[in-house]
């Protein structure tokens, strides 16, 4: 998802791991199947909450995590509360991968890039002589691990950039409409966490503006954020490449995606880009990995009440289990380190146990 | 306002011109005067419009400009209109300097920088041996014109960057509270155009989200945008420097302004940054200079109804007159070229004559 030298190296590692782990699982349906459900998760959420009025978080088990959310909302929005937050300052930031939807066995956008290579390869016979492309096509992790930066520039150019923004939106939408997750065999857009949708709605109902602040590609996420999360495109902050103002053959103004990273939205970049987009700090932030640490620290410095939460994936039965915090298996996607766990405990952040705190993970369960 | 090499050169020219033209006019009150009016322009607007209900644009004379605004709003918001625009797509973009407030004799932020140098000079005796700083202090345009890029790096570092963002906000607010415009002898925040405030409100009342898209500094404008325009900080898109996530001595997370330009929000950059912030095109755009051309072209390409307007400063009695379009005097601040004028006429954009279309320019008139 990141296109500069440093992140090429990260991507290289991720691709190698991903292919080593799941190269034999085809994950995209090639038929034009009507993958969209008849009602969206947001709509399902609406009716679920209405049925259970009085409980804004029906998919949460009673416990400290649910209570922390309710306490925060009441403290910051009830008139007369000493911790009241003015409506214009009610901002909540949610990481996406691993926080609001599934990020294993690999980020969905990485799967999008892999599939772009597979789709385009018949038009590019020359790729068979390029180790990176060939490695991706046959699932050779070792070959991918050896790829150079210029190999990755070529991958970027082939899959995500050097095209008008509108074309990229179309590609992303089209892929998302047919791609399916290898474990759950459902569209990625159905793999959102119902408890987090409820938190988003609960916050919005209390005057908060909800932002997605993701390491993923901003324009990629914007193609489905409204439908899946009820989050408008302008409330998505993500990694972004530069664009170039140009004229097409009819002299119409267009923007073209350039192979140059503008915003790297991870770690300190999340705080920096929240400032860039909002000009102020959030009062609530939700994440699940070391890449979210600085966003939570920045949020806690807001002055006044704040809420910081981290999702711990400790449920291998219903979703996945990884850490390495608390002795959970290590991972390269969404690493939750023991250091982060200890910081959370030390600073009063809330760690959400997926296993214990979430009564239901997906809208379609049961 | 721009900090890279290219714009240093621009800035150099602007400073030289500004000092040549007005080096003898002290423009900042040093007393801590209560410069804020008891009611803001936005509040004054509210009551004015309420008094004249039925006419959402009371400061506009009847004519093609006023009619274009009303036609656009009706066409895009009335149910059943063939040009109806969905509420989520109702976005309007306003340039600031010269479009929503006075930009002559120089941009207010440039005045802020000049005054920063004057304020700080007693602590920097070494500046007297630096041609740029000395030139600014004594108003020597020629010396400023000869300044090197490293001189301007030093100016940036001394006035706007290498400090926590919160400190910059404080400096900008403090300056704005006391600075006065040399011609009108009022705070800059009172020099907003009443007709444009009315358009902003009229658009908002009809479901549009109003953005300021300025070549000026984003964090500078955000310190007053809500109070002056009713535009929230997150709806200000401007030129921006990079920031750096850091910890202060108490291990609190802070962001520090770096001397490196991240977003240059002028010309094609305006279109690029609208995409970056919003993920879509506006349906209405307002500007006044060649720096706004691409934003208007990008808006016109939205597909469906759109409104593009340019303010022509042709009123030397009530404000200023400059072009060089239509034989008006040339200028280095907010140049409205004849080419832009001809493009406007050719593409169906509306040129607003300040002299003929605006019944009243400022809220405090009469």
In terms of structural class, how would the helical and strand content of chain A be classed? alpha/beta
Amount of beta strand of chain A: 5-15%
Greatest contact pair? Answer: A-B, 38 and 38 residues
Q: How many strands, which pairing sense, and closed or not: the largest β-sheet of chain A?
A: 7 strands, mixed
Number of helices of chain A: 15
Described by its quaternary structure, the protein is homodimer
Please describe what this structure looks like.
The structure is a homodimer of 366-residue chains. Chain A has 15 helices and seven strands. The first copy, chain A, has 366 residues and is of the alpha/beta class. In chain A, strands 4-3-2-1-5-6-7 form a seven-stranded mixed beta sheet, sandwiched between helices. In chain A, 49% of the residues are buried. The model of chain A is unreliable at 1-10 and 16-38 (pLDDT under 50).
Question: How would you briefly describe this protein structure?
Answer:
The structure is a homodimer. The first copy, chain A, has about 375 residues and is α/β, with parallel strands linked by helices.
List keywords for this structure.
alpha/beta; seven-stranded mixed sheet; 15 helices; homodimer; 366 residues
Describe how the helices and strands are arranged.
Two copies of one chain form a homodimer.
Chain A: H1 5-22, H2 41-51, H3 64-77, E1 91-94, H4 108-120, H5 131-138, H6 141-145, H7 149-159, H8 165-178, H9 194-205, E2 209-217, H10 218-222, H11 225-229, E3 236-247, E4 253-263, H12 268-278, E5 284-287, H13 293-300, E6 307-312, H14 338-347, E7 350-353, H15 354-357
Parallel strand pairs in A: 1-2, 1-5, 2-3, 5-6, 6-7
Antiparallel strand pairs in A: 3-4
Helix pairs in contact in A: 12-13
């Amino acid at each position: 998802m990141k296109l500069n030298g440093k992140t090429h190296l990260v991507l290289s590692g991720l691709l190698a791991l991903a292919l080593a782990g799941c190269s034999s699982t085809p994950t995209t349906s090639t038929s034009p199947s009507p993958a969209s459900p008849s009602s969206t998760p947001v709509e399902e959420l609406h009716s679920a909450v209405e049925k259970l009025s009085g409980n804004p978080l029906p998919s949460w088990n009673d416990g400290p995590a649910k209570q922390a959310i309710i306490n925060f909302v009441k403290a910051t929005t009830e008139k007369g509360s000493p911790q009241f937050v003015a409506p214009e300052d009610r901002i909540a930031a949610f990481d996406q991968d691993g926080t609001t939807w599934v990020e294993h066995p690999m980020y969905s956008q990485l799967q999008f890039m892999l599939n772009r290579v597979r789709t385009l390869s018949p038009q590019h016979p020359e790729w068979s002589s390029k180790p990176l492309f060939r490695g991706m096509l046959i699932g050779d992790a070792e070959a991918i691990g050896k790829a150079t930066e210029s190999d990755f520039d070529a991958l970027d150019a082939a899959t995500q950039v050097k095209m008008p923004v509108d074309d990229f939106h179309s590609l992303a939408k089209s892929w998302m409409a047919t791609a399916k997750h290898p474990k759950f065999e459902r569209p990625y857009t159905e793999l959102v966490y119902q408890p987090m949708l409820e938190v988003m709605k609960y916050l919005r109902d209390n005057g908060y503006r909800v932002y997605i602040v993701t390491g993923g590609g901003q324009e990629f996420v914007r193609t489905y954020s409204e439908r899946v999360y009820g989050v408008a495109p302008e409330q998505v902050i993500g990694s972004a490449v530069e664009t170039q103002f140009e004229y097409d053959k009819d002299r119409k103004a267009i923007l073209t995606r350039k192979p140059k990273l503008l915003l790297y939205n991870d770690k300190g970049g999340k705080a920096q880009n929240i400032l860039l987009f909002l000009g102020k700090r959030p009062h609530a932030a939700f994440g699940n990995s070391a890449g979210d640490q600085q966003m939570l620290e920045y949020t806690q410095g807001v002055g006044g009440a704040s809420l910081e939460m981290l999702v711990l994936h400790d449920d291998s039965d219903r979703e996945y289990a990884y850490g390495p915090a608390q002795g959970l298996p290590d991972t390269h996607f969404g690493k939750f380190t023991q250091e982060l766990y200890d910081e959370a405990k030390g600073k009063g952040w809330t760690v959400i146990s997926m296993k214990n705190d979430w009564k239901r993970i997906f809208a379609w369960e049961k």
